[in-house]
Amino acid sequence: MKITFVLPCPCLSGGIRVVGIYAKQLQQRGHEVTLVSVPNAAPSWRSQIKSFLRGHGFQHRVSRPPSHLDQLTMEHRKLSRYRPILDADVPDADVVVATWWETANWVAKLSPQKGKKVYLLQHYEIFDYLPVDQVKATWKLPLHKIVVAQWLADIAAQEYGDHDVSCVLNGIDPTLFFAPPRTKQAVPTVGLVHSQAYWKGSDIALKAITIAQATIPNLQVVAFGHEPASDPGLPAGIRYWQKPAQTSLRDIYAQCDAWLFPSRFEGFGLPILEAMACRTPVIGSPAGAAPELLADGAGMLVQPEDPEDMARAIVQMAQMSATDWQQMSDRAYDRVAGYTWTEAADQVEAVLMKLVNDSPHQLAIPINPLCPQMLS
After folding, report:
1. Residue 340 and residue 320: Cα distance in Å, rounded?
2. Cβ contact 145:165 at 8 Å
């Protein structure tokens, strides 16, 4: 197949990382993959003035920041300025994949020669800083949806009446995320991804830790994130890594008795998979894929926006017997072991090939049992 991915400005976000993984995996299978992207839009004068009046100075947006696509070897057509992507920018292909709400509008307007139209949805992007009505409208476009979690498939069906959706959970790289069986840490330890983004919920996790430390005073905390170690949101005594290498993450996950996932809103939540693959149980809010991944004793689900409930789970995990903790650790590992990016790419490839071959409806494409939605 000839496959084109249409992207916003590539960066180091998790969403771009997922697109890059699929592009590379499909290329390795012998498909001809092309990337087409735009640079960042220049900040408008209005937003510049607002930024200045709020004391943040003038905005300086990098046109093309570093991204997860930089090391890929397939053709990457980079537009010189931000604008809608048109037919002339895109090669004729079998499939063209939109990867963001703006790109969905662009892909919908492309000619049929550019390929069967697909919409890779990694989140429900109804954020205050985006034009929500326009984002919702993209869910109604005649593009076949591939979603990364069951809750997104449910939104497509329940809110937009679209039951013709393929659900493919994200995967992990087993060469990066693994750990041998182990016992509880000598000192109770929890970890988290620290972020200033409100929807990531770092404030919830840190408050929960403070509450838990009243009962477990020797509770230790590790974290990693993009912010510098001097970030005022980081508590004293935390062991923190800024932008650690991917090869270092497993060691961070594996030194914890529990990994905290406090997100208020999440498309998927890759750290859940990564921690579980490193045999670290996760205490998480019911955001993204957490309800599927943490079911049946593979972790602990807590109430959203509830640091007291998360603190209770931290204390419970810290006070578990070594045997009980080991059993939960094993269940977490077994839950995600074998679910790799290779398998996820197999499923995406199968969906694309079915679409290209114009197979009839009710196409039974088996998807990971954690996300049972099928192309139908």
Report:
1. 30
2. yes
The hierarchical CATH code for the domain 2-171+340-356 is 3.40.50.2000
What type of residue is 297?
Answer: G
Q: pLDDT (tens digit, 9 = 90+) per residue, 115-146?
A: 999 999 999 999 888 999 999 999 999 999 99
Distance CA(14)–CA(120), nearest Å, equals 13
CA end-to-end distance (rounded Å), the chain? 21
Q: Where in the chain is the domain with CATH 3.40.50.2000?
A: 2-171+340-356, 189-336
Predicted pLDDT of residue 46? 55
Contacting residues for 142 by C-beta, under 8 A, at least 6 apart: 108, 117
Q: In the sheet where 220-225 sits, what is the strand order?
A: 239-242, 220-225, 189-194, 258-261, 282-284, 299-301
pLDDT for residue 64: 81
Domain 189-336 has what CATH class?
alpha beta
